Amino acid sequence: MGDTDAGISGVSTAVSGASDLFLSQYNVGGVEENSTLFGTSGADTAQGPLVVVNPFLVLVSGRTDGSSASDANAGGFDA
User: Fold this and answer.
1) Beta bridge partners of residue 25, listed in sequence order
2) Which of 33, 36, 62, 77 lies 20 to 30 Å (CA to CA) from residue 47?
């Protein structure tokens, strides 16, 4: 988990704003199996712990200064 302003290896989606959050999955041998970018047209950063509830549910926290499809930015950085 982290954030990037230059994209990540193996993901064809370009960074959509100043920075995007990424989440990567590794197997027990340490080999990357999957990576995904998340972000708005603003700056998006990962913050706080990553919580694995089960193999199908991972909670990620962070902040953004952009708006999502369902929420408008209220000014500054929003959680």
Assistant:
1) 34
2) 33
